[in-house]
Each structure stands twice: as C-alpha cells, then as structure tokens.
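Re: your question from the hallway

Yes, I did run it. Sequences:
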Amino acid sequence: MSDRVDEEIIDECLRGNLSAFEELVHKYEKVMYNTAIRIVHDPDDAADITQNAFIKVFERLHRYNRRKKFFSWLYRIVVNESLNILKRRKLTIPDDENIRSTGLQPDAKYDEKEETQSIEEALLDLPVDQRVVIILRHFHNLSYRDMSYVVDASEKRVKSRLFAARQLLRKLLIQRGLFQV
Amino acid sequence: MIDDRHRELINASIDGMLSQDDQEYLSHYLSQNSEAKTMHDQLRELSQALSMVNEAEPPPQLRHNILQAIRMKQEEKKQTPMIIRLATAALDMRNRFAYVYVFTAGIVLGVALSSVVLNLERETQFDNRDLSGTLSTPPTKSDYKPVDRVDFAEAAIQGSMFIGRTGNSVLVELTVDSREEIEVIAQFSEDEMRLTGFRHLQEGISGIAVSEGRVQFKNRGENQYHLFFNDRGPAGGMLHLRIYSATGLLYEHRMNVINSR
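Structure:
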C-alpha cells in the first residue's frame, strides 16, 4: 500500500476526479470488505459497511488528516462501522441468538477446511475489541502504531490487548481440538 | 514466570517487529527460559494457523454499488444550494476558516432570503395587475383563436387542454375531472413565455404555487382553470403539462404554443 500513490490519488479526488476515487475503491475494496466480514461475520453487513465507509471517505476527504496514513483512516472508519453494526445487532437480537448463530452460517466463499472453520469460529468467540486487533494484525499486517490509530487506543494498550487476544484464542482453539495443551 | 518486558519482546518477535539486536537478545533469553520458549512457540503456532484463513471475495457488484452511491452523492452535492454547502463547511469546526464560512453563509442567506421575499411578492401580485396591463380586452375564451386541443382520459382523471391565442397572448384552458386529489404542474421556459394570469373558474384557487417557469395547483372534482401567457419571442414556446396522483404520474403532455402572428 503505497502512501505516496494514495496521496496523489487523493489530490485528484479533491480536484473532483471521480475516476481517481474509483481507483481508491479498486485498491481497498477487498481489504476493507475482509476487515468488516471478519468482525461482523455476515456478507451482507460487510458489503454495507464497506459501501458506507467509502461514502464517508468520499464525503469527508477534504477533512482527511494527511499526517495519518490513508488506509489507517479507512480501516478506522470500517472498524467503527462494524462495531456500530454489532451494537445494533445486540440491541435487536436476543443474547442467545447473537452473532454466532446469525453469522456462522456456512458460506461457500470461505475455505471449508475444518481447521479454518474452527479458527473462524474461535475468532467469533473473542470479545470484539480483541477480535479487531487480531484481525488488524494477523490478516492485515498493520503496525502497532497504525492499529493504535484505528482502534483509538495507545500502542501499549494495543499490545496488551493483542497478547490477551492471542492467549484466549489459543485456549479456544485447544477447546476445539485444533491445538494441544 | 515471564516478566512484562520479555512478554512484549516475544510478541514483537512473532509480529516481526524486533530489531536485530533485540532478536538476538531474545533468542538467547529463550534458550535459557523454557517457559518463555514454550510461549514463543505457541504464539508462533497460532500465528501460522491464522495465516491459513483465506481472504473472502467481496460480492461482484459491490464496487459498482459503491461508485453508484458516490455518483449519487456527487449529484446531490451539485444540487445542494451554496448556502447549505457553506453552512455545512462552517460546521466543520476543524476547519480553521470556519468563521469565514459562517460570515459568508450569513451574507448569502440574507441575500437569498431577500431575493425569495421580493420574488414571492412579485409573483403573488401577477394576477390582476398583469392581466390588465398586458391584455387590452377582458380575457374571455371567445377572444382567443383555437390553436390546439388535447383530450385525456386516464384511470382516475379525465379532461382536456385547450390552447388559444390572440396577438401575443396565449390562453391555456384546462378542464380536469378527478375523483381523488391530484396535482397539476404546468412548466414552460421563462425565455419563451411569461405567465401573466391564472384563473380558477369554479371556486377559489386550489393551493396554487407559482415559481420560475412553473405553475402548480391541486384539484379534486371537476374544475376549469385558465392560464394566461405572453410570448417573449417570435417563436412561441413549449408547455409541459403533468398530472400527478398520490401514487405517481397520471398524465403527461407537451404542447408547442406556436406564435402564429
């Protein structure tokens, strides 16, 4: 993800060039969709989140803080949108029918290997703030600093959250028989 | 027991974020601390397991939908009056020129409101005064030579539109019979024609609204309306009539009001 290129594209967008924005969508659509689907685990919600995030970016591009990396800003919007969806779900869906039962329906797009499925299920059992840092670090390779901006927490907090998430995830995978004690 | 510093080093090592010196130091530490070595290996195993998870493919239409939504936003933005855009920009308090926007928005709002008030006053005064000023004889239908006529009968409405002319004055007589409330909109180009009068031949005016190049009013039951226009140029002009019910467009007709002088 070259920030230099992003800066150039953003400048073009701000001059009103819609095809430049199309370039941004082309570049980040898949990673943002993947971030969203890992958090909310529902393809329709993930598509909505991705779309809303890009619309927000389009509307607020003139306010984009160039001291931050563009993709970090985009991740931040996607993560916040995803968390909002989860909050709304929690309000509308009874506890015993929460994310796991609604989100874990088999999806042909996913790798059907048992191990992969176990990992995905285990991820859903993590508290959402831990799930987010695992996703950002392991699936999107974000640095601690970028993660800190995306989740709006100090680097120290991000590191300790990541450590706790890894520990818990390992336990969950042991429970599923994927790892040995 | 693993202290916080070494725990952090282990995690950073898994994330590939250690300097060479720190990595060398950690390797030495792990070789002497089996508990730390176990933790390191377990985290590495977890990291490898997570790398097995495949990426999901977004729906094929997602990009199209995003761009479509962006285009719509862009269109909305173009159609948003300047005053709203300035006010919106003013609300962006991170903008250091916010106060300039607020000031400019205030001036533009003042000018816009004055313009609306003056325009409204002018438009609501057109009826009698303009008629007497532009028509030398009292405007009755018999004064107008027929130019065109169209009858219409749709599910919920029926009626006719008659167009007559005398000199540079045009009469549009609209007869409408509707069981439910409908809205009639007549549009024209201000460059081609000027609206000089409106008359509801039954009782009162059914919420008439006049704006630039447009007259609209509501109707229920059988009624007749007269719209008077004056040509601005030698070629006459186009009149676009639309009739809407609560569910949508019922009838539409375009008629060229040719100047036959």
